[in-house]
Protein 1
Amino acid sequence: MKLISRNTDYAIRALCYMAAREKDTLSVTELVEALRIPRPFLRKILQALNKKGILKSRKGMDGGFSLARKSDKIYLVDLIEAFQGPLKLNECLFKKKVCPDRNSCWLKSKIDSIERYVVSELKPVSIKTILKGS
């Protein structure tokens, strides 16, 4: 199981790169060269971040992408949810059906507790804190 998917990882790397630069708008070409992420893949990620209001896009000669929010307002949990959906360790499925013991299962209760803990630990982590390393 991966906590962070490839899409989320690439989004984090792109946002960190953008936040660390003094430039207002960065071209896709610059991002592709700096991050070594395939262009079509990166464009798809940047467009998704634009739709979520995390990035702004500008067309034309000086076009590209810029942060729509300050780096301390872009949270890791939001990125995980944008690319992966809600953080879930287990769906409680048994042979492709919802487990009938879901409401009384001790293991389900324990997993729910772990999920809440992981989310609470990740919630304060922003792009800015990732850049600072603290």
Protein 2
Amino acid sequence: MDILTYLIGPFIGVLIFQLIAVFMYKDTEKIDKGFVLNYNKLSYRRKFIWNLVWGIPIIIGASIAIYLVTNLSTAEYIILGMAFLVLFLLEVTYNYVKWKRTEQNF
């Protein structure tokens, strides 16, 4: 089976849930200290730290799981790994830039 059949449903579900959560917590105060279960309530500094601490192990775990469950070619594994890496770097960079901008405003 094609890998897209395994990824499209969960991707759409996560995308819809994330869009709803972004609008629900858009105007709420962001938390910078203490435990917060909801990612959308975190400040950009905390999102940046969360992405560094949890993003790398999640990417490695997902890559290993995909390798064990699917039967892709080497090129497909490389493309998937590069996609994970690019998305991770985009998210970390975005949160870092937003963190520094919000620091300058205060």
Protein 3
Amino acid sequence: MKYVSSSSDQTSPARSRLAGLDGIRGLAALFVVLHHSWLMSFPGFPAPVGPWWAAWLAYGHFAVVIFIVLSGFSLAVSPARNEWRINSLRRFAFRRAWRILPPYWPALLYSCIVAWTLVPQPGEGAPTLKSIVVHGLLLQDVFGSPSPNGAFWSIAVEAQLYLVFPLMLLIIRRWGASVMLSAVTLTVVLVGALAPIVRPVGELMRFTPQFAALFALGAVAAGIVVAADRWRALPWHWFSLAAAVPVALFIAIIGPEWTVKHFFWVDLSLGPAFGFLLAAVATGRPRSFVWLLDTRPVRSLGSFSYSLYLIHAPIVVSVHTLLIAPNTEPGVGQFLITLAVCVPLSVVAARLFAGVFELPFTRNRSVEALKQALLRRNNQPEQLAAAVPDSPAVTP
């Protein structure tokens, strides 16, 4: 599950922040935690298992679809305000590495330790040295190795999309957003159509090429921030609902087994709904939904959603395998206990993790800024002590 992070390469945080985006990010990450709790409680996925009222939790993959569209959108907001330009490729690359690697590498180490000492991820062996190298270099979709964390696969995909993002912007500047989106989407559709019959093309499916089209869609949707009023006034939220309902009904009717086998096409079908949704939220509609997304708890969850995405899987797997499953009967009761224990534990652990490995890097966007923040923090107790006059000794 990519988790998607926000970006602001040319503008100040105050200007670039759009209400509601952090909330979407946080709820999507929470959905992934619920999905993995469901998977642990009802093995046999993608077979239709578990109670009917929890069937929607089988589709945690679609949270990654949201992350990818949102990633393209968030990264493109600042260039859209700057005539679709990135002022410095080196600065862009540094910002992306600064954003994703400081939490990712500690999460990789943590995941390996859990897999070595407690329990590996379902269907995976214990991580090897190759696992560390491959995952550390974000090449896990290129080279196979035992995965220490079931959520890491999407981080490599997103990092690779960063490499083509400047090219997407170049095409938008020269030929327009519709040309860029059409070119990327047609290429991806061609890959999907040829994959079953042309073996070399089929090898490309391991890179989830549909995410390139979704990422491009999010980037184009970011144009709403500089669009004319007549475009901003359109009912994007209703467009989103109209695009999502037919796909959702089809998924409900056809079931998870077919859907999982055809994620490529289903993801592409859902993309427009999420693109329209982001355009709606960026224009402040529907107001009640944007208000909910921007409430303090939801916005706060979004602020450390990347950490939640990175570290929740080892927590859910180890707690369920070692503590919950041996002491409960399989079924709904076990599932509810897993939710009650693993979800809050994952959220609390992620917030603590983020306080060390994520938030300092999002609040301080350079090495120098981080050093200054640490110096201020270290000097604060001395400054407070100097500001408070000595108190007289108190004897019992």
